[in-house]
Structures are given as C-alpha cells and as structure tokens.
Amino acid sequence: MDLSQYIRNIPDFPIKGILFRDITTLLKHKDAFKEAIDQLFLIASRYTVDKVAAIESRGYIFASIIAYKLNVGFIPIRKPGKLPADTIKKSYSLEYGVNELEIHKDAIARGEKVLLIDDLLATGGTAAASAELIETLGGTVEAILFMIELEGLEGKKLLGKYNVHSLITYR
Amino acid sequence: MDLSQYIRNIPDFPIKGILFRDITTLLKHKDAFKEAIDQLFLIASRYTVDKVAAIESRGYIFASIIAYKLNVGFIPIRKPGKLPADTIKKSYSLEYGVNELEIHKDAIARGEKVLLIDDLLATGGTAAASAELIETLGGTVEAILFMIELEGLEGKKLLGKYNVHSLITYR
User: Fold this and answer.
1) In angstroms, rounded to a whole number, what is the distance separating the alpha carbons of residues A131 and B140?
2) Taking CA atoms, what residue in A is nearest to B107?
3) Which of A55, A73, A130, B100 would you label with B161, given CA atoms 20 to 30 Å apart?
4) What's the CATH fold of domain B47-170?
C-alpha cells in the first residue's frame, strides 16, 4: 500500500507558500491508518525502550498506539501551560514561527530509554527540542520516528546524532 | 487494578479553585496505561462503529488506540485554525472559559456511526459540541467514552441523550 496516496496536499496552509501535508485523510481511512501504524510499529519494535514520548498534538495519535503495542509508558510533551506539575521547558523555532515545549520533571527517570514520535519532520526544531528535554531529565533517545519527512528542510541534519525514521518522504 | 490510584490530584490548576486530575502519572505507568486502554476497549467493542472521533489533544491518546483496535478510521476534532481543509465549527463553554471546535467537512459521511472519545467529562460542553459537529455532518454518535468523569459537574445530564461511559468517577 502506497501510504502517500492517502495524504492530502493543501497549498498555502497555515501561511502562504507552505504546502501542508494533511494526514487526516490517511487517519480516517481504516486500512491506510492500520497500515501506517503497523509500519511504524515494525520500526519501533527494533528498539528496546522504557517509554514512548510524543509531541503534542498530532504526535499523540501515532505514539500512544506504539506505546500500547510495545507495552511501555506514554509521555506527553506539551505546549506551554498545559502540564499541571513541575516541568522543564525548551524554546525552539519551527517551519513557521517560534514555540516552546514542556515535559514533566518526573516523566522520565535517569537512564530510561525513550522512543520519540511525531507526525512530521520539517526543520527538526520541534524534535530536537523534545529530545533535549528527554536528555535533560537523564533519558536517552533511542530513535525518533515520524510519519512524514519533508526532506528539503533538512531536519535529518539537525537530528544528525539520532536514529531517525520516517514512513513517507517528500523531496 | 484501581486506576484512580494512578491519577495525580493537583490543586488550583489551571486556575484557583480547580482540582486538576492529572492523567500523565497513569499514562507513564505501563501497566496502568495498558489496563486503562483495555478497559476502555472492552466498553468500545460493545458498539459497532465506522469511525472513532477524538477531541484534541488528550482525547487523541486514548481514541487512536481504540480506533486502531476496532480497525476503523480516526477523526480528529480540533481547536480553531488547525484543520487545513474545509471545516464546520461549534462554540461551547467549558469548566473554565469558552472555546471553539472544528471538524473537517469530509471527516464523516452521512449515516456513519461514530464513537466519540475524550479524556475527561466535566460540564460536558466539549463533548456536546463535538457530538453536534458529528451530527451536523450526518453521523450518529453511538456512545461517548471518557477516562475520567467529574460527577459533581453533571456533564452526564447535558449529554443525556447519548450512551456515556467513563472509567474513573470522582464525586
């Protein structure tokens, strides 16, 4: 199954000049959704991890299933002000704009191995910031998994020191 | 397993007077996370549905796994401005504040049966707005599932015409 056939391309979203890769058309198609998860799980299961961490909010859709299937805990990395207990924060630039991410201080114990999952690899800023949050807590990032990779933005370069995998690649 | 033991109570979050039920402590505990999902799936599998719809963003964590396990499509209901294609919108009041939700017009086909999932039932405003969005598209809401229900806020009354289930109940 060619998963890219289920991705919808939307020009000029969220701002002019950006060609947005819309995964909702894949998610709503039961066979494409299942195939995407199964392909992602095949990659995830190569790694032995203690936790799966996910970047809010589309990352949750894929990461929670992978955490469940690996039978490990799920860690949400969230936008500022959403996590209720003590957090650490990290600012980062993204394809369009600047943002900040937070993780609970008690989310990951020192020495734990973590798989990081998000829907899309663009410049890699979001994933790099997330990986740093995990490392600041003493965790190690075993691999970073994406549904989609926009190769032209060279996110893999920024994430050079990590094992990075993606299911669908756009030049 | 008593799932409520894995929920952390945080006073005065996000605003003074609110006792926040923090699910991140459950999510990160692999056995509690698995048990919560398996209990939710047991309820979900009583219904025959075409789609699972989830409310951004914590709803995604539970709903995507249920959609995957039921082998049906996953529909995200999102905060304004996030969905890239044509949408319909619905305003609603929540426990603290007012908000708006959107769904893609092509998310659900007329006559499709939908299971709606979110993490928390408070006043029910978010779920009621989401159910209305599904119905406006011609779908039927077979049931609404929550991890946590805050009984004192009487959300079940507002959702009176739906089948509503929750795993953990607080008075």
Assistant:
1) 41
2) A28
3) B100
4) Rossmann fold (3.40.50)
Per the CB < 8 A criterion, the answer to whether A115 and A143 are in contact is yes
CB nearest to B13's CB, from A14, A84, A107: A84
> Is B95 a known active-site residue?
yes
Is the overall model pTM greater than 0.90, yes or no?
Answer: yes
CA of residue A112 relative to chain centroid, distance: 18
Sign of CA dihedral B137, B138, B139, B142: positive
For the complex shown, is ipTM > 0.85? Answer: yes
Contact: B28, A22; criterion CB under 8 Å: no
B161 contacts: CB under 8 Å, gap ≥ 6: none
- Rounded to an integer, what distance in angstroms lies between the CA atom of residue B39 and that of residue B131? 22
Cα separation of A128 and A104, whole Å?
17
CA A161 to chain B, closest CA, distance in angstroms equals 26
pLDDT digits (tens, 9 = 90+) for A93-124: 766 678 999 999 999 999 999 999 999 999 99
Residue B14 to residue A85, Cβ atoms within 8 A: no
Tell me the per-residue pLDDT of A23-44, one tens digit each, with 9 for 90 and over: 999 999 999 999 999 999 999 9
